[in-house]
Amino acid sequence: MSLGRLKRMLLTGLFIVAPFSLTFILILWFVQLVDHMLYPVTSLLGRPVPGLGLIVSLLIVLGVGALASNIAGQHLLEYFEELVLRVPGFNWLYKTIKQVAEVFSPAAKKNFRSVVLIEYPRPEIWSMGFVTNEVTLEGRKLVTVYVPTNHLYIGDFVLVPPEKVRTLPMSMQDGIQAALSAGAALPKDLLQKRKEPPPPGEGSKVQPT
Questions:
Q1: What is the mean pLDDT of residues 41-62?
Q2: Cβ atoms of 85 and 93 closer than 8 Å
Q3: Is 154:148 a contact under the CB 8 Å cutoff?
Q4: pLDDT tens-digit map of 151-162
Q5: What confidence score (pLDDT) does residue 205 get?
Q6: φ, ψ for residue 171 (rounded to 5)?
Q7: Which of these, 156, 192, 159, lies nearest to 174 by C-alpha position?
Q8: Fewer Cβ in 10 A, N or C end of the chain?
Q9: Residue among 77, 81, 75 nearest 64 (CA)
Q10: Contact 19, 150 (CB under 8 A)
Q11: The dihedral of CA 164, 166, 171, 177: what is its sign?
């Protein structure tokens, strides 16, 4: 095995393992932080309570989710975010992590608008991507297409004229599944619409004679 191939395999494995490892480390750090904050309470009980930090962490995450689901909570979170963005150095890191999280969150439907094909990185080479935005460059309208290059964690964003974009009749879920499967989950005919199932009860109707 050549040194170049070994290096490519090492980098590919690193980019796959790193997001999972980072997520696990952050969750573990948060649970340990909550455990440390609960130490005065557990010291009054006279003995540690197994799993208390994990349970409280889950309740905190659920509480933040519930808070963000109403208008008053959203305003409160926006105010807290403004305070965080005033911290030098930390504001850049926070904005970067937040943008990545928003793209791959369950609410990504508002970020991933459609599944498309574009000729990238050169003509006659088609790449599947996701339309994420529309911009204007020197008076010309362009669409922003995110092209995954390593599952969904790493990729390129390309500015493409709308007439150069071919929208695929695929749902966001099908598109993400195709990217995660390295193309194995793509339908045989990319531009053929999948048949939608008939509405409930419609298949049992008696046709008039």
A1: 79
A2: no
A3: yes
A4: 565 678 899 999
A5: 45
A6: -80, 165
A7: 192
A8: C
A9: 77
A10: no
A11: negative
- What CATH architecture applies to the domain 108-180? Roll (2.30)
Task: Write down the pLDDT at residue 100.
Answer: 60
Model pLDDT, residue 191 = 74
pLDDT score at 97: 67
What is the torsional sign of CA 103, 104, 110, 116?
Answer: positive
Tell me how far apart the alpha carbons of residues 92 and 75 are, in angstroms, rounded to a whole number: 21
pLDDT above 70 covers a percentage of the chain that reads 74
Q: Where in the chain is the domain with CATH 2.30.30?
A: 108-180
Report residue 196 CA to chain centroid gap: 26
Length in residues, the chain: 209
The per-residue DSSP string of 88-102 comes to: TTHHHHHHHHHHHHH
